[in-house]
Design goal:
The two termini are about 35 Å apart. With about 450 residues, the protein is of the alpha/beta class. The chain is about 35% helix and about 20% strand.
């Protein structure tokens, strides 16, 4: 093949952009060369970083700078506001490209089989994150009437949710937070936030830096019960083998032994409390029942038969994300991922689905930090290029770069481009500059399209 390898990447979040970067850094980029088109259903790129990271995490959002450098490369084009499969399906992608990589991530809440989960006042954390991050496809308001709130889960998303609920709106105003979110949080009545984990401090999935950031707010008093600081042989082994787990446990120990402070909002971190039921009355959340757990020697826990009812008026379920099933691709509903072998999509009979690959959370599930998707991308791209070198890619029927552009225009798809992102980016920064902020995020999809010149 004398022409460049044509690759479509569906999903322009970190995973997709890292895959594009891996392709550009490969030997194939020299000869015959690579040509990459990223398709993103949102009008703007960056996926999880724009719509999944809390606005008060500028350090993580700084990753965008590195992703910008990749998308600036001339071998890459961005097609935003393009839905798979509504605007372009797998058959069309095979027509225009030699290979297709899916990096669609995970944005829904994993289901929790807990009585009372369907009560009014019981929310999925992913939905709340989408609201406070200004996702264009969710409601513009959020009910924040509860004075006492429970958050189920001991991962970084649970920390983000708890921190946003416990902070004041004015603390978040210097960030890129949209005006509707600031107005909603200004009416937030929460003064107590309780985070529950069924296992112990050594098993918490927090990142050490994320955990310590809880204590940086002048309005949040972080409280840990000394009785929750407990370790067995398995927990001690975990601390010795895992530096991050040891740092998390040490931070929790220090908070457990300090004297109570006077900050107005209280954030309680509870361990060894397993949620058993969300309690309701008249269809609304009125409490949470948990069972006290104890360590069994291996780092796992068992029930004690002792129960506590907590006075809370809303519950946020932060037990993990779940990917959407992709039409014309196999799907494992248990893991919420596409079956694969090193990134090559596997059909039901165990064979490779021709010229189709996955990377990121749709490949391995929603675990790990953003940077961990680099390894996924490298593995997947290596398989793609190996298949190309071995003649196992059937080849695009219409590989001309203008062919896909004509197809989208004929279908009337209002797509955005990389140049369009620069225009939207400049507009958001101008909105922020008028208020002494770095940027103000545009929320409405139509406004995003207009400022992008779609």
């Amino acid at each position: 093949m004398s022409r460049p390898i044509r690759v479509a990447i569906v999903g322009a979040g970190p995973a997709g952009i890292y895959a594009a970067d891996a392709l550009l850094k490969s030997d194939a980029a020299q000869a015959p060369g690579v040509s990459i088109d990223l398709f993103e259903r949102m009008p703007a790129p960056f996926g999880l970083i724009r719509y999944g990271v809390a606005p008060d995490h500028p350090r993580i959002k700084g990753i965008v700078t590195a992703l910008h450098q990749v998308l600036d490369k001339p071998q890459i084009r961005l097609f935003g506001n393009v839905d798979y499969p509504g605007d372009i399906g797998l058959d069309e992608l095979h027509r225009f490209y030699d290979a297709v990589v899916f990096s669609t991530g995970a944005s829904a809440d994993r289901a929790l089989d807990l009585p009372g989960s369907d009560l009014d006042g019981s929310y999925g954390a992913a939905d709340f994150v989408s609201w406070y991050d200004g996702h264009p496809d969710v409601p513009r308001t959020w009910p924040l009437e509860a004075e006492k709130v429970a958050v189920l889960g001991v991962g970084n998303v649970a920390l983000d949710v708890a921190r946003i609920l416990a902070k004041t709106a004015d603390e978040l105003l210097p960030t890129e937070i949209p005006p509707n979110v600031h107005a909603g949080l200004a009416r937030n009545k929460a003064v107590e936030v309780h985070v529950f984990g069924r296992r112990g401090p050594a098993q918490a999935k927090f990142s050490p830096m994320e955990l310590r950031e809880l204590d940086h707010s002048p309005n949040i008093e972080v409280i840990v019960n000394p009785e929750d600081i407990d370790y067995d042989e398995g927990s001690i082994a975990t601390r010795r083998a895992n530096k991050q787990a040891n740092m998390v446990a040490s931070t929790l120990e220090n908070w457990a032994i300090r004297d109570p402070g006077t900050r107005p909002h209280k954030l309680f971190l509870h361990f060894f409390e397993s949620p058993e039921e969300i309690l309701g009355a008249d269809g609304r959340v009125v409490g949470l029942r948990t069972e006290r757990m104890e360590l069994d020697g291996t780092g796992n826990v068992r029930g004690t038969g002792r129960f506590t009812e907590w006075d809370v008026q809303s519950v946020y379920r932060a037990i993990g994300y779940y990917s959407d099933e992709l039409p014309k691709l196999p799907f494992d509903p248990l893991s919420g991922t596409v079956p694969h072998e090193a990134g090559r999509v596997l059909t039901a009979d165990g064979t490779h689905q021709s010229a189709v690959y996955v990377t990121g959370w749709i490949k391995r599930g929603p675990v790990g930090l953003i940077g961990h998707t680099k390894g996924d991308a490298n593995e997947t791209v290596a398989c793609l290029l190996d298949d190309h070198a071995g003649g196992r890619l059937p080849g695009a029927l219409s590989p001309e770069p203008d062919a896909v552009t004509s197809f989208l225009e004929e279908r009337g798809v209002r797509y955005t481009t990389w140049d369009g992102w620069h225009r939207l980016d400049a507009h958001e920064q101008a909105l922020g500059a008028a208020e002494g902020r770095e940027r103000v995020k545009v929320v409405e999809r139509e406004d995003m399209l207009r400022h992008s010149g779609a």
